[in-house]
Input
Amino acid sequence: MRCPFCSHTETQVAETRESDEGDVIRRRRRCLSCDKRFTTYERAEIALPAVVKKDGTRADFEPAKLRASMQLALRKRPVSIEQIDAALARIEEKLLASGAREMPSTKLGELVMRELKRIDKVAYVRFASVYRSFEDVDEFRQLIRDI
Output
């Protein structure tokens, strides 16, 4: 760690404390050159993959967009906010666990459909009908049969 006062590269950790939530570590450091003290904070950097759309463009993963599309499918359905939050958390967990830097939007859509199918079948059918853009009624019937 470089000293912010004199830019010396050697510092000594005088004290280390973890936050109450356990997600941040605070370190008090002392510069071995100028003897000044300063504080640093460590936190995990969470990098969700970029979304590769069907046309090949890339966009940052936006949890708010995902929530909005799920809420649209779940409109007027008896599903609590806690269930939606849990489903979103499972999706983000799967994205993080994949370790991928990019994720095709089709794969993300499949993750959303899997979660919707788990929490509400009607919302699943609503989302799938838009996501898969059915060409005829037979495809729609087949989806309902599969449920």
Notes: The mean pLDDT is 89. The chain has five helices and six strands. Residues 50-146 form one domain. The CA atoms of residues 125 and 143 lie 8 Å apart.
